[in-house]
Each structure stands twice: as structure tokens, then as C-alpha cells.
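Notes taken during the Thursday session

The instructor put the following on the board and asked us to keep it in front of us for the whole hour. The protein is Tyrosine--tRNA ligase. We were told not to look anything up and to reason only from what is written here. First, the residues (421 in total):
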Amino acid sequence: MNNAENTTFKSSFLREAHARGFIFQCTDADALDEAMAAGAITAYIGFDPTAESLHVGNALSLMALRLLQRHGHRPIALMGGGTAKIGDPSFRDEARALMDDDKLSHNLNGIEKSLRQFLNFDDPRSGARLANNAEWLDRLSYLTLLRDVGVHFSVNRMLSFDSVKQRLEREQGLTFLEFNYSILQSYDFRELNRRYGCVLQMGGSDQWGNIVAGIDLVRRTDGKQVFGLTTPLVTTASGAKMGKSARGATWVSAAMLPVFEYWQFWRNTEDADVGRFLKLFTDLPVEECERLGALEGAGINEAKKILATEATAICHGRDAAEDAAETARRTFEQGQIAADLPRRTLPAALFDDGVPAFRLLAEAGLVTSNGEARRLIRGGGARINDMTVADENLLVTRGDLRDGVVKLSSGKKHHLLVAPD
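Then, after some discussion, the predicted C-alpha cells were revealed:
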């Protein structure tokens, strides 16, 4: 079912999606191309509310919906208020912890805010639609599910899904609760098709089995042709998983990650990834992305700044992105303490008594542990107020405050301000 190698698409969305590297697998790409060339379609991607914000690991899915919308098609962002009560077992070592209703509601509100950062919900023709599968799954009778839906699923086929096989091969076990996830996701596709005429489900490559199962359910029960398209797993040139850092997930919520740190995440992109990430995570024309990605030396560093600013502008707005870029310029190029650097507050008693440099770095969250702080200092990578720290036990006191803050730095790219409470 994978015929996404077609490079002569008629539809503008598939042409640009292919050029930018969004397409990994596609079911009946020729028929989908014909449908999209003939007029606007509706497509969806699901987002389970496992946290109160989406993160950079979700950015490819968000950008895929954004690109779809830019070409005049209508995206549906489906929040998994129902399926989150089970948890997607895809490529996980163990079952997700189940959430209580209050936590789930809190996360759903946060996910909605994240989605609105990337998508336009107000356009009368192609405005994104927000849906929550709890609307139909919470009312679904178990016997109805077994009779009308479960009868169309082969356990043998479900066991062949890579996401299921990997769990079983690791001997982690797969609960019956989790095993039902694919059925419920398939039910979502059919429900969205019936309610809103949705004919395309998109998602990461790990969702291929679930997507195909949904396509099959719609065909068997409603006699309709619908489609699936997956995006590739994005890793960095060095093989790291996209969106993760030593300090955890790179959240899109400014309440969970300062805008400057979001900008800095993109600024730290490896040279070999710049062109690819520009095509995937910005709205810049493909030709411009390729030109910037081919630069070398000082030029590639300027391209990284453009990547950081454009990606941040999509997520947080142009003004916030430009402010972050200016903060970086003042911090890195002029050595100033910029007021809008990330800021942490620590107990005043630490500064009254004097806190060892290694402990201050760890308490502030610039590193993850005292041991990592000691290693950073021994390697010459730690600075306090732009001065290299040579002694890990150097006491930092109120006398080190500059305009009420101490500037901490790890290497050339990670900085924050610490103030006593």
C-alpha cells in the first residue's frame, strides 16, 4: 500500500509535502492525489493529552496539518479525551499510567492551546476543526462495539502490527485494555468520516498499522474509500530522537518552556540538519530552505538563526521570535545580561549563606545533577556572570548579584538568570 514514490503529483499539497519530506507512506497515493486535485478535502491527526502541552516531538504532525490548511484543505485536530483513558501502546516499553478526570481535563485545555498556536481555527473555508473523541467513545456501548466493529478485526492481523510485536518481543506484556486502542482509533476515523466527511488520516510512521485498520473498517462497514498518510520518524543527524534534550522535552507552551529556550533549541540544530529542518518546521519556500541548508562556515550559523526565528514565529508569534533572536544576539555577541533570558528564583538563604557554584548550577536547573555540574566546571564549560568557574566549590553570595540576578552559563549556548526570592 506504499506508493508514495510518485513525484508528479497533481495536487499542490502532495507536491509540496513530497518536496519538503513529509511523506513516508501513503495508501493509494494516486487516488488521494486525484481527490485533492479535484477540490478541498478534510483530514485529521490525533493528539493524546498525555501532558498539558504538546512538544517539538509533535511539531511534524502540527506542521503537516498546517501545510494541508495552507493548500486550502480543512484539518481536524482530534484530541484523545477518550483514548487517553486507555493509552496508546505504540512502541512503548510499558503501559501508560492512567489519568484521573481532573488531570485529563487540565491536559486537554493545554493541548487545545498548543494546537491554536499552529493552526487557524477561524478561516470560514479551511478553518481547522477541534474535536474530542470522548464525545462518542464515552457513550459507546461495549456490546455495540463488539457486534458492529470488533467483528471486522482479525487478532492475527493485529498481532502483526510492529507496535504490538515489539511489545511482545520485549516480554513486557500487552494488556487487553491497550490491545483495544487500535479498534478505538479505527472507530474514530469512521466517526470523523461520517460526521465531517473526513477522508484522510495522517500521523507518524508508528501509526501505520492503526491507520490501515481504520481504512479497512470504513471500507468494510460503509463501503467508502478513505486514505492514510504517514510522516517519517525525525531524528537528528547524530541519531538522537527529535524534541528531546538533556533537560527534557522541548514544550511549545511558553508557560512550560520560555520562548528564548524554544528559540535556542532550534538554534542548536546540527549543521547537517538545517536544510531538512527548515523544510519541515518553517513556512519558508523549499528553494530558500535548500539554499540556506547548503551554506557553510559562518553562513550555516546564520541559517540556524533563521531556522530558530521562523520556527519560533510559527509557535509563539513573530514579535516573540524577534525578541528571542535579539536576546540571543545581545547575550552571545555582546556578552550582556539580557533581561528576557530564562529566569529562575531560588531561596534567598542560599545567597545569604553562600552557595557552592556546582550546587547553584544544579539547583537552578542549568544541569540535571550535582555530578553533571562538577563535570561541567572541571571541563571549563561553566560561567557565572560571564566569568569561567575554575573552582566547583566557589561560593556565590549576594555580592555576586548584578541588577538583582546572577547569570549562569553552560557552554556558549545555555544561559539563565537566577534571583533570590
